[in-house]
Design a protein that fits this description.
CATH topology of the largest domain: Alpha-Beta Plaits
Distance between the termini: 47 Å
Order of helices and strands: EHEEHEHEEHEHEHHHHEHEEHEH
Shape: globular
CATH architecture of the largest domain: 2-Layer Sandwich
Strand order of the largest sheet: 5-6-1-7-8
Strand content: 15-25%
CATH class of the largest domain: Alpha Beta
Structural class: alpha+beta
């Protein structure tokens, strides 16, 4: 049996965990630069559509007394980690699917529903985040059971596929777009061919499905028939590329501010590189103007190879800034910069160089580990390089951001 555990209205639940006054109140969370709505509590969904531009819905925010927050990804990421660690203590094998979802292997548990209810209760007690859990023989059906658990309070937040009395009737009333791995384009194509619900998809011609939707579509049909096709993935594998990218809070025209942003983004990517104990061989940088404005447009990118694969942050920043200076052009207003660390290897497999045979891996490893340890203890950017700047006027807007309650000493919740 496989379970899908999904945090309910995760971003909104994180905000409520530290502010009880928000319980049962409508909440929306905005994207970077307070642009669009990226999360809504159940109370806000009837007033505000997903992806709505915030500036167009100011009147609705006020009229319906909706609490609006800037995205606080530092807080959300830390709470997510706590939720996942608790769930991992209940099951041996799990796949973290997203910041608020995880597939769990329940093989061997005689009472999976009771086990998941205990896990759900501990997550709620320890983090304040409610979780819904669907249990089924396959990932696809577990996803459907998860939705059922959310929609039916009598389940207590946990529902198992075998407990559904009328499976055929349920699949017939379930729109095909609600099925895992069925996107918008696939939905349109299925509807054109007379397939509107999950039951019709399950009984569709398999040869046609494979020709039109590849092997993934065929596997989805098999999973609806209770035949497992999608296995749990291992989260321990290192990433092959690490990206750090943000839109600026204001247009940037001068090279100095662009250099600060790029150095900062590389530092963020380096943190992930350190977490997986890897080294990289190439650094990628791109800059772009705002295509939504009637101003001169420009985009360019560059990939800089490193002499030696490394995890030494000064060298990564230096390579990124050299690349930036090559692609930068005066006279443009830049909206966004993107950085990537590519050619990622385990540190024991790094390529050596005849040009620098005495490269001191031991020294840089000690220094980088020390910086990583301090920043983890005292907060990200407690120690940072001067090239990342001080004022950082380019940073994204976050005018309604809640405190980082769990990761910053200066922002701890206080009790009067």
């Amino acid at each position: 049996m496989i379970a899908l555990a999904d945090c309910n209205n995760f971003y909104a639940s994180c905000e409520r965990a530290f502010n009880p006054k928000l319980r049962n109140k409508p909440i929306v969370v905005l994207s970077n630069n307070d642009g669009c709505v990226i999360a809504r509590s159940s109370e806000a969904k009837k007033y505000i559509p997903m992806g709505a531009p915030a500036f167009k819905y100011k009147n609705e925010f006020k009229r319906y007394e909706i609490n609006v927050y800037s995205a606080n990804f530092t807080l959300y990421g830390d709470i997510s980690g706590r939720v996942m660690r608790i769930m991992h203590s209940y099951v041996q094998d799990m796949e973290i699917y997203s910041i608020d979802e995880a597939f769990l292997n329940l093989k061997g548990f005689r009472q999976p529903v009771d086990h998941c209810k205990k896990m759900r209760a501990e997550v709620l007690k320890a983090t304040g985040v409610p979780v819904s859990i669907g249990i089924a023989p396959t990932k696809t059906l577990a996803k459907l059971c998860n939705h059922y658990a959310k929609d039916h309070k009598e389940t207590g937040g946990v529902f198992k596929w075998s407990d559904l009395e009328d499976k055929e009737g349920y699949l017939k009333q379930l729109p095909v777009e609600e099925i895992w791995n069925v996107g918008r384009r696939s939905t349109v194509k299925l509807n054109i061919n007379g397939i509107y619900n999950a039951y019709q998809l399950m009984n569709a011609n398999e040869s046609w499905i494979r020709n039109e939707f590849s092997i993934t579509g065929l596997r989805t049909i098999s999973e609806l028939k209770e035949i497992p096709c999608f296995k749990l993935e291992q989260n321990g594998d290192p990433r092959k590329g690490i990206t750090s990218s943000r839109s600026f809070g204001r247009a940037v025209t001068d090279l100095t501010n662009l250099e600060e942003a790029v150095a900062t983004y590389i530092s963020r990517a380096w943190e992930k590189l350190m977490e997986q104990k890897s080294a990289c061989s190439h650094v990628y940088v791109s800059i772009v103007t705002n295509r939504h404005k009637d101003t001169p447009q420009y985009y360019n990118s560059i990939t800089i190879p490193l002499t030696i694969s490394t995890w030494y942050l000064p060298e990564l920043i230096d390579a990124a800034l050299k690349g930036l200076r090559q692609i930068y052009k005066k006279g443009y207003s830049y909206k966004k910069a993107t950085t990537m660390l590519l050619g990622i290897y385990q540190r024991g497999d790094v390529n050596l160089s005849l040009i620098e045979p005495d490269y001191d891996f031991k020294r840089i490893n000690s220094l980088m580990n020390a910086i990583e340890k301090i920043n983890k203890k005292d907060g990200s950017e407690s120690i940072k390089y001067a090239s990342t700047g001080i004022k950082q006027i380019w940073r994204e807007k976050k005018e309604m951001k809640s405190p980082r309650y769990t990761t910053s000493w200066n922002e701890l919740l206080t009790v009067n």
